[in-house]
What we know:
Elements: H1 8-17, E1 23-25, E2 41-47, E3 53-55
Antiparallel strand pairs: 1-2, 2-3
Amino acid sequence: xxDREISERELExxxxxxxAGTRVELVHMDDxxxxxxxxxxxTVKVIxxxxxxxxx
Length: 56
């Protein structure tokens, strides 16, 4: 859950730095129920208007 809304400037920056197709690697996640582990790699699919980066 976000503590604050993302500004348009921050959102545009995320979309510029992580366009669809960008390869990323999981470094850390604060979800005790996930099976995802650091080091997993994926591809950015889309960034929504809240700044959530969706990765496959």
